[in-house]
Amino acid sequence: SGQRIYAPHCDLIVTNHVSAGAELIADGNIHVYGMMRGRALAGAGGDRDAQIFCSNLSAELVSIAGEYWLSDNIPAEFYGKAARLRLDDSALTIQSLN
């Protein structure tokens, strides 16, 4: 917890759980193959085509190119589930991966 990882000019792939308080930042996409409880910021360099993929979405915050949701904004039906987040006309959207 509390750790920050930044992947400049590329995607970030995590094959473990991300603890609360941890922060993942990537200029590209973020993939988390484990429980995502921290913060995920994709498209940090402004890439509006970046996406976030989680096998268990329980994040404190998700952001793509500066557009963000806090945990309270994540629709309940996706919380704790596999999901894909992306931007659609400057608004965050979410889809189930199950």
Supply database-style keywords.
single chain; 98 residues; mainly beta; Pectate Lyase C-like; five-stranded mixed sheet; 0% helix; 49% strand; CAP/MinC_C
Topology order in helix (H) and strand (E) letters: EEEEEEEEEE
| Percentage of residues in helical conformation | under 10%
Number of domains: 1
Low-pLDDT segments: none
How far is the first residue's CA from the last residue's CA? 28 Å
What name does CATH use for the topology? Pectate Lyase C-like
| Count of alpha and pi helical runs | 0
What is the CATH domain class? Mainly Beta
Measured by DSSP, the beta-strand proportion falls in: over 45%
Backbone structural class: mainly beta
- What is the second-level CATH architecture? 3 Solenoid
The outline comes out as: globular
- Based on DSSP secondary structure assignment, what is the total number of beta strands? 10
Please give the radius of gyration in angstroms: 12 Å
Record the strand order, biggest sheet. 1-3-5-7-8
Mean pLDDT across every amino acid position: 97
The largest pleated sheet is described as: 5 strands, mixed
Keywords: Cell cycle, Cell division, Septation
Organism: Klebsiella michiganensis
Protein name: Septum site-determining protein MinC
Family: Belongs to the MinC family.
